[in-house]
Design a protein that fits this description.
Largest sheet: 5 strands, antiparallel
Strand order of the largest sheet: 4-6-7-3-5
Bound molecules: calcium ion
Number of strands: 7
Strand content: 5-15%
CATH topology of one domain: Helicase, Ruva Protein, domain 3
Mean pLDDT: 92
Distance between the termini: 37 Å
Helix content: 40-55%
Structural class: mainly alpha
CATH class of one domain: Mainly Alpha
Oligomer: single chain
Number of helices: 18
Shape: globular
CATH architecture of one domain: Orthogonal Bundle
């Protein structure tokens, strides 16, 4: 996920690598990469061991080129990522890992709820890692398609991780683009920031929860997390407030915001100290937030404000906080994962082949949703919200 937003300079690699156009060229490409891999610290023995007989997975090139079919609305995104199921599970895990999380907070200065919220959004608390063998997918991305230069760096990093013995080769699986483990770090991020917290000599983000939680906290600390500070909070804007020119990066003193009439949503005054930017992810009529530099640290995990807001909100919910006070500006709110599974079950009942009920609305589910929307006289958008769920329940 993360890699989609990085380094545009690598598009330049495209023209110089047109020779590697087909799967048949993969072996030649891997031979070609041996010298740069060696220069990047991968021994010939390790390179041979992990690339011998490797076949390309051209499916990852399709993923690289595939643009999402439509933009997900913020209320759909948030409804799926911060639902009651995830809040409940996160609270149970906070209790279960209390001791480790306290040690992590003591060493890195990042509180337990924030660390667990990242864990929940990144990998559903370690339940969804992705299943692409990293060496294969990163090797393929190093030899075909756009951005080969970027992926070569990650490919070599994945080989160095194996060479160092942190993770067993068969366990090094992840997203198609190479993010892996509880924290979904890219291999180069792993090398910079992963931590051996359980003291077994390995930095293991696949099978050690302690290493994963500590690595997340280390990431946030290095991204500028300020201990004891909030990420921000929801605010109420005065009527007619002009949000033009405001945003996450436009930090102003809390006193300035107070002078312009902003209050917290419970009506209380803003803190006297500190500075924050004003974020209105659904425009001025939706929820509004003042966000501090700690929000920027969350943002840097994936370079998306919606993503940062999901972590921030989940962390508040884990601390016992309430859902946002201001409703999203829509008459058709998004679905939780439980509701997405219910939609899928209802589509199955109506005879649509949507595969397994997993709460992920993929191409098959979208096609079935469109068919049902057409039958119901709704706009055939392929998007499922509360309106469709209610209609299908009847
Ligand atoms: Ca370890």
């Amino acid at each position: 996920m993360r890699t989609l937003l990085l380094a545009p300079t690598l598009a330049l690699a495209l023209s110089t690598n047109v020779w590697a156009q087909s799967a048949g060229d993969f072996g030649a490409c891997l031979s070609e990469l041996r010298a740069p891999a060696r220069a990047a610290g991968v021994s010939d023995a390790a390179y041979a061991r992990h690339t011998q007989g490797l076949a390309p997975d051209m499916g990852v090139i399709e993923k690289l080129d595939n643009q999402p079919e439509f933009r997900t609305a913020i209320w759909d995104y948030m409804a799926g990522l911060v639902d009651e199921e995830r809040v409940e599970q996160g609270r149970a895990l906070l209790d279960q890992h209390r001791e480790t999380l306290n040690q992590v907070a003591a060493r890195f200065g990042v509180d337990a709820a924030t660390v667990v919220a990242v864990w929940g959004v990144e990998s559903n608390f370690g339940q969804s890692f992705g299943s692409y063998p990293l060496v294969q997918s990163l090797g393929t991305l190093s030899c075909f398609g756009r951005r080969q230069g970027y992926f070569r760096g990650e490919f070599f990093a994945s080989l160095r991780i194996l060479q160092a013995g942190h993770i067993a080769p068969e366990r090094l699986v992840g997203s198609w683009a190479g993010a892996f483990g509880h924290t979904q770090f890219m291999p180069s991020t792993f090398e910079r920031l992963a931590v051996d917290f359980d003291g077994d000599g390995k930095r293991d983000l696949m099978d050690s929860t302690a290493d994963a939680l500590a690595s997340t906290a280390n990431f946030l600390q290095k991204a500028g997390w300020q201990t004891g500070q909030v990420w921000g909070f929801e605010v109420k804007l005065p009527a007619g407030f002009n949000t033009g020119g405001e945003g996450r990066r436009t930090k102003r003193a809390m006193a300035d915001w107070a002078a312009r009439g902003l209050k917290r949503v419970d009506g209380s005054a803003l803190p006297a100290q500190g500075s924050a930017g004003l974020m209105t992810p659904a425009g001025p009529s939706g929820p509004a937030f003042l966000v501090t530099r700690n929000f920027d640290a969350l943002y840097s995990y994936n370079a998306a404000e919606s993503y940062g807001l999901a972590i921030a909100h989940l962390s508040d919910r884990l601390r016992g906080g309430a859902p946002f006070a201001t409703p999203w500006p829509t008459d058709d709110l998004g679905l939780s994962r439980a509701e997405r599974r219910e939609i899928q079950s209802l589509l199955l009942l109506r005879g649509h082949d949507i595969g397994t009920v997993d709460g992920m609305l993929g191409d098959k589910s979208r096609a079935a949703i469109r068919a049902e929307q057409t039958r119901l006289g709704h706009e055939a958008s392929g998007r499922a919200g509360q309106k469709l769920l209610k209609a299908l329940r009847n």
